[in-house]
Amino acid sequence: MQNFEIKSTQIDKIKKITTKEKSFRIKNLEFFKTTGFPNKRLEDWKFSDFKDIVDKNFKELDIKKVSSNIKKIDLLRDFEHNYILLLNGNLHSSNFDHEDKNKITLNPYDKSIDYKISKNPLVCLNHALAENGYSLEIDKGYKFNKVLVIYNLFTKDIKNKILNNKNKIKINEKSELHIIEYTINESKSKFINNVYESIILEKNSKLKSLFIQNNKSDGFFYKFLKNKLSLNSEYLNLIFSSGLKFNKLDIECDLVEENSRCNILSALFLKENEHQEIKTLINHLAPNCKSNQKVKNVLSSNSKGVYQGKIYVKDIAQKTDAYQLSKALLLDDNTEFNSKPELEIYADDVKCSHGSTSGNIDHDSLHYLMTRGLNREDSTKLLIKGFLSDVIEFIKNSKIKKFVESMFEKQINEH
Amino acid sequence: MLEIKNLQASINKKTILKGVNLTIKRGELHAIMGPNGSGKSTLANVLSGKNGYEISGEVNYRGKSLNNISVDERAQKGIFLAFQYPLEIPGVNTNNFLKTSLNSIRKSKGEEELDTLAFLKLVKEKSSELGIDEKILSRQLNVGFSGGEKKKNEILQMKILDPNLSILDETDSGLDIDALKIIAKGVNSSRNNEKSFLVITHYQRLLDHIKPDFVHVLSDGKIIKTGCGELAEELEKTGYKKLNKHNAEF
Amino acid sequence: MKQQRLEKREEYKYGFTTDIESIKAPKGLNEDIIKFISKIKKEPKWMLDWRLRAFYRLKNIKEPNWQKPKYPKINYQDLYYYSAPKSIKDKPKSLDEVDPKLLETYVKLGISLKEQEKLSGVAVDAIFDSVSVATTFKDKLTEKGIIFCSVSEAIQKHPELVKKYLGSVIPITDHYFATLNSAVFTDGSFVYIPEGVRCPMELSTYFRINASKTGQFERTLIIADKDSYVSYLEGCTAPMRDENQLHAANVELIALDNAEIKYSTVQNWYPGDKDGKGGIYNFVTKRGACRGKNSKISWTQVETGSAITWKYPSCILQGDNSIGEFYSIAITNNYQKADTGTKMIHLGKNTKSKIISKGISAGNADNTYRGLVDINKKALNSRNYTQCDSLLMGNKCGAHTVPYIKNKNFSSIVEHEATTSKINEEQLYYCNQRGLNQEEAVGLIVNGFCKEVLQQLPMEFAVEAQKLVGISLEGSVG
Asked: In this predicted complex, what is the ipTM?
């Protein structure tokens, strides 16, 4: 693609940064300039050639800032909740009326930087340019009363823009937070959202998060999520991100101390040229930790689903219990599912297994439903729903569950 | 045959056997009974040489100390343990396992190893003596075996390996009356002046079929009472608690 | 040196060298060497041209470096590419004419040709260094129209077949080691089974790397014409050496309509000593093309040797209804490294593939399974079933599973399972109590773990394989 050039002077425009930070940013920018967008020659991007995708969809791209205004957004009425509103990735406003505000610290951007060098070009681009996002910290010993909804609003005027954002969530000891990241797309055009998010769970804390969209989007989303789990902490991530033109969720989860647990589940229904990849790397670095991944995809009309899941078990991580399952249903011609479930194990007293299957709808089941009076279309829908539903069972709150089910219903019916 | 003097055994810093004294002469069959947690299985494991226990005291087998003798060496010297929970080993054919085991023991005694034909003949002979269907031996070792089948398999192994000292660890638990009879037959048909048995059991009913020379009660890591067959019947009626109370005073 | 050898002889039965003088080409890899090789083998011009094309291409490509085991840089100029025992300069016409010293070597290896001739009826094509020494049973096979000879001989006597099929499955344009092989291959087996013929005996061949610094570059080509069947066994041994030796072979299999090729390998290369010194580098390219409808190719292997193993026997399932199978046991101990697996490429309709891989790591070894299941868009109704299991012994070793699954066809079914486990202490205790010592107990349990694969091997290999499994794990249980 011709028109994408970032001058190093771009970094000069970023105010109030130390010299150390500035040189770090410049270094990252230089790296991005030499590699460009990641292409399929990089092992991690083998199945999602980002460079190719960008070249095919964008004639130009720029990083100029957008200053958008919104009057008001329609809050979800299905259940009571707190909220944070992000406007094109920037922190706009928040409301924690249901909580003890003294326990919550919310800032527009986390100034602390991890100076680790990355070989991932998109992460480098983010390190170079990101100035906005949100940083949320929850004090010790606090459990939220209501769920927190993060409204991620993308406005009309971000055509051909590449937005770089950095987020941070820190849950201190013994606290618990449930988040729903709800993407609302008002943009009718293509844009790229490149996010770097880090999540720190201190001892005995819990974080449950859920990704879901309001509607279809022509956005191209990439999120690199770095998690660190301490003693006895628990992380659950439910991904229902169907409807995005392109989405790659790149999760790296470090189980640093004993008894930490990580669960990543997704149920996606991809259609019409959509391409979604879930990539996970679970590092079992301490004994007695548990990880569980279940990735389910239904694909139709030229869509492409990818799952790359790596489980790494260090030699001291004895009694690890790691489980991974990926299942795909291909509904018609021209769909593609690629999977690479990887195991790298150096400890011998562990329970690790993974499974991956892909195929079509079981004809016998279809036939059975049809003999009970359902037509082919309805039978197929029912089977798809059944296939994806066990992920929804992980939602304990009945109102939220109902909400997600209705969104799901919408996604399936549009088929 | 077996002389145990002041045997103490602990695991994970917990002392389970607290000074066991027991002498088994050649040709004798001793029964050990006792409440749960008394250390019966530990005794069986320690005698077989299982790793993981801290041991003090003396255990002499045929006049020689068993100290530092490994599990497989003890087996080769003629000590057999019928497990309470026989393990499954997938992919390993039972016949094949038995043949390997038998030949290993024969080799250590300086005897000639059996070839497959001779071995299968021996198996057929022993299994029909006991009334066990030999087809069970074509399956993978203990995989998918019912509780009864596992226990019968243990006794069949005992008949084939022909040990000097057989330790049966709760071989009767979970068996129906027919299986019990097979077990008893297996033991009784092996009894003679040379062979000794140590039968660990929870219930008295096995001893209706296998008459012991001596009955001991193991409680809290020590043998607190020794008697003859009648002791077992008495226990059946009165239970273990009374016995303990009786011995708590001194 | 000699004293060490005496001690080590117990460990490695085949660790010895023959004193026969060898003809060696001068060291190095250049156009002259290639011409030398071609000349000494009296090859026709078209063969020399083919080699040179491969050689020129070599200059433009690089050694691959994506595989996990890293190896010290190989100086290709520092190897001998041709070495043959002098006494074989003129080919013997019958066994009686074979150098008795060579025959002695084979007796030590346990494959006395005469003995085999009597008992098992297996035709043996024994390769000593880079030249085929004797080929037995040619007469019996010739009756059926089966051609089983060295590649060198095939080039002379059956050039039309060689021209047609050589390089058709592994082309000159393939990766580095395959191309290197195409340029400098010295010999290998050539098998052709004519239409409708079922090969009446297991074909086997033994390899051996003898002279110091001679990398061995075999090239095997097996063609099964319509409605035919052949089972081919490959077993290797190598002497003890302190310098690493390179083994980059190419094996091409072609199965036409309704034909079946069964290719079994029990690999026993020198693995390097307990500290990881010396040992063979085994970089092999094996590929089978199921060209015809209803054709079938199955690869069965037991890999226990080599310092570094790098091989991916693959099946290209072109013909409709064709079947590809891969059964493997890969054992690594001490400091061995293995990066092995398979590729099943589904192109035709109703194609099926089955992969059963058992990896066992012990000591400080590293064992990686790398597999690819690629279901092409047009491969309607295809099925794949993959099962990879790893057994870890101790916590200094590693097991790595990297399966790539690409499914572009909605009517196909792909199933993949992988588990990792260790040997259960309780299981070992049970075996011990039945008189088996640690080594025997581990051998028994591991053989049980690998049973599914061992069942696929032809009988005589199965026994050798079981013993090999036991020996390879010596010293692994603490």
From this structure: 0.78
